[in-house]
Design a protein that fits this description.
single chain; 438 residues; alpha/beta; TIM Barrel; 2 domains; nine-stranded mixed beta sheet; 14 helices; globular
């Protein structure tokens, strides 16, 4: 077993060096939470806890992926979602960030150069040609927005070029759906687009949602895989349980239930709906690229409830819970997977962080002797009084009463220099530890 290293846990330790080191990270976490709440939406007083729900889903045969960050009602999932796990070969772009909708939870304002791309367009074909010319292997291509179909000519030209340059790549288009028509669908079909993802807005009227369902039915006549991808807003459970069977009747391939997020702005709209932030907001506190914002309390629980509902109702469409944490793993994989660190680190195939073990203070001498006896590598840091060694070597300490810190790390590049950034500390003992957890 590995446990989070919290303030409360640190108070139980007698090892002063360990406590001092652990407090550095808990202080950073507390400061980050204060900064998060400065955006205007408070954290929920109830801490996030879904263990009972997830165990119930396991018992019912739900499929757990990506270290339990992604959960499926059945085996139907887009290959683009599978590629997203590591980001390898996957490329998603946009023509512009212009959109005809005005969703209160839209996070496009967090995108780089948002104001510029409201008024200007990317040359997506030139960008794609450049990637191919550089020899980048592309297995999955997506076009999103804004709303891509505000630029139908550019959208169709992008997929035609993709079909020419990388005909084996899986291609997909994201859309709100209301601008879809038969001419566009025929163009997408002619360009061999594999997948069309609609977004249904639960704040729309029933009439508007039914209109989008009609567009989905039309798209099914042209595109092989039609999906829905939408954030799941707390309080919409009954409407969602009506929507899922309707999508199933339309023979939709699947639906991605996204954890609903606060985009760090427009807090008043969230407060009016009595929404708070998930507590804790992150599993790992780090500068993630994903611009979606912070998870809202209650969304994950409702997503899991809907996966459970789909299993009970034996729906054919794949109902996929994509958590906010699931969005981060591709970044961590891309930063870490091809890096070479010293022998005290191991690359985790579960969460893609580099892991290492540390002991502190007087316990360094005991562990050092054992590691030397077995010719195991280690490093010593005198500034923070720790000895760092491979996690695999913990088994050599099984008869010792020691507190061990498991450190998770990300590789960053600064001025072409490799920098190892420690981002998470956990606690274990030789008797508690199981290598399967890494």
């Amino acid at each position: 077993m590995i446990a989070k290293l919290t303030k409360d846990k640190l108070r139980t330790f007698q090892n002063k060096a360990l406590v001092q080191y652990g407090n550095i990270y808990t202080d950073i976490e507390n400061a980050t939470i204060e900064q998060i709440e400065s955006f205007g939406l408070p954290l929920s007083r109830r801490r996030h806890h879904v263990l009972q729900q997830t165990e119930q889903l396991r018992a019912k045969g739900a499929i757990f992926r990506n270290n339990d960050k992604s959960i499926l009602s059945n085996g139907r999932i887009s290959s683009a979602c599978e590629a997203c796990r590591t980001g390898t070969g996957s490329y998603t772009t946009f023509v512009s960030l212009k959109c005809h909708r005005d969703c209160y939870f839209c996070f496009n304002k967090n995108q780089d150069e948002y104001n510029f791309y409201l008024q200007n367009k990317k040359n997506v074909n030139q960008d794609l040609q450049s990637l191919v010319d550089q020899g980048v292997k592309l297995t999955h291509l997506g076009l999103t927005g804004g709303e891509p179909l505000l630029h139908p000519a550019e959208t169709l030209a992008f997929f035609r070029l993709a079909d020419e340059l990388v005909p084996d790549a899986h291609t997909r288009l994201y859309t709100a759906g209301d601008l879809i028509n038969e001419d566009i669908l025929q163009g997408l079909k002619d360009a061999h687009v594999n997948e069309l993802r609609f977004s249904i807005k639960m704040e729309d009227t029933i009439q508007k949602r039914n209109y989008i369902l009609q567009k989905i039915a039309l798209a099914k006549q042209y595109i092989a895989d039609v999906l829905v991808e939408m954030p799941v807003i707390p309080g919409t459970g009954e409407d969602m349980k009506e929507l899922l069977p309707e999508l199933d009747k339309l023979n939709v391939f699947g639906i991605n239930l996204l954890e609903f997020c606060f985009p760090l702005g427009n807090a008043s709209a969230f407060k009016e709906k009595n929404l708070n932030l998930k507590n804790p907001p992150y599993d790992v506190y780090y500068n993630f690229w994903y611009a979606g914002g912070l998870a809202v309390a209650g969304s994950a629980e409702l997503c899991l409830e809907l996966v459970d509902f789909a299993i009970d109702k034996k729906l054919k469409l794949g109902v996929h819970f994509c958590s906010l944490e699931n969005k981060f793993t591709g970044q961590i994989y891309q930063q870490n997977h091809d890096q070479a660190l010293d022998e005290t680190f191991i690359f985790s195939v579960k969460d893609y962080y580099f892991k290492t073990a540390k002991v502190f203070g007087k316990e360094r001498g005991t562990v050092k002797k054992i590691l030397e006896k077995h010719h195991e590598p280690f490093t010593i840091n005198n500034d923070y009084q720790f000895l760092q060694f491979p996690i695999q070597s913990i088994k050599l300490l099984k008869n010792r009463d020691l507190d061990i810190v498991i450190s998770s790390n990300v590789v960053e590049m600064e001025q072409n220099q490799q920098v190892i950034r420690e981002v998470k500390l956990e606690w274990t003992t030789p008797k508690m530890f199981e290598m399967l957890e890494i």
